[in-house]
Amino acid sequence: MAVLTVLPVDHPMLRRKASRIRGVSAGLRTFVDDMFDTMQANRGAGLAATQLGRPWRVIVADTGAERFALINPEVVRASGAAIADEGCLSLPNWYGPVERATDVTVKGLGLNGKPIRRRLHNLAARVVLHEIDHLDGVIFTDRLVDPERLRFVDPRSPEAQELQAS
Q: Which of 2, 9, 130, 149 measures 20 to 30 Å from 48, CA to CA?
C-alpha cells in the first residue's frame, strides 16, 4: 500500500471528466487500496481517482460507519436536502456550505467486478455526491450556496476537529 499525492484544486485534472472503467483488475484493486491509505493519511472521508491524477471513475469513502469503494458510480435516485460545510483534500483546510441530497441510491461495480447498489443517507450520501462531482470535473466550491462563507480553518483549532468528525 502507498500514500499518494493529492492534486491541488487548481490542477487541470480536477476539471476533467473521468473515463469509465471497463474491468476490474488486480492493478485497480491495488490502486483502490492506495486510495484508502491516502484518504486515511489525509484524514478525509472520501477520495476520487481524479484527485490522484487518474482519469478513472473510481471513488472511495469512509464515514466511520461505512467504508466502501465504487467503480463507475452513478446516482440512481436522490431526495431530501441539507446544507452543511464541506471540505476537500485538494483544498486543505477550506470549508464552505454546500446543499446536497440527504438520501441517495447509487449503483456501480464493486471490487469483485460485480454490480452493486447502495442506499446512503446523510454523511455517506454527501461524501459520495462530492466524490462523484470530482469524477465529473466539479469541485465543491462550484456548489457553494454562499461563496462569501468559504473560509480557511486552522487545522489545530477545535472547529477543525469538529468539521473533520462530521
A: 149
